Amino acid sequence: KKLPPLPKSELEIARLVWGLGDATVRQVVEALPAERELDFWTVQTYLRRLKDKEYLEVRKDRRNNVYSTAVDPDRVIGAIDDTIERLFDGRTFPAFQHLIEERGITDDEIDQLQSVLDDLKAKR
């Protein structure tokens, strides 16, 4: 089943839950960086949305909801395909070029990239 893409704010919360394993709303709030001033109720809303979108599961532990992953986090990375399709008409190179030019790349990453490109070329 194809999962809906996540807005940045929900992805941030999902990544925290994935890192924690199982988490209550309060644990997610406490795991947020200090500069992210999200209150308990906002985090709870994000967690409910993630459950509704089937990214997270929830179980009761006494009075608390405990959230955990419902999908392999690597599967979420596949959502980039949807983004590339929408923003770059499905063309990989312009998306890749944009990322490199806007975000930069280290010399070590250039070497790694060159190795990947050499391997791809050799397979053709």
Measured as a percent range, the helix fraction is 55-70%
Distance between the termini: 32 Å
Strand content: 5-15%
What Rg, in angstroms, do the CA atoms define?
Answer: 18 Å
Using the alpha-carbon principal axes, give the shape: elongated
Q: Low-confidence parts lasting 5 or more residues at pLDDT below 50? A: none
- Helix-strand string: HEHHEEHHHH
In the sheet with the most strands, the strands line up as: 1-3-2
Number of DSSP strand runs: 3
Instruction: Give the quaternary arrangement of the chains.
Output: single chain
Q: How does the major sheet shape up?
A: 3 strands, antiparallel
**Secondary-structure-derived class:** mainly alpha
Number of helices: 7
Mean pLDDT: 90
Give your account of this protein's structure.
The structure is a single chain. With 124 residues, the protein is mainly alpha-helical. The chain contains 7 helices and 3 strands; from the N terminus they run αβααββαααα. Strands 1-3-2 form a 3-stranded antiparallel β-sheet.
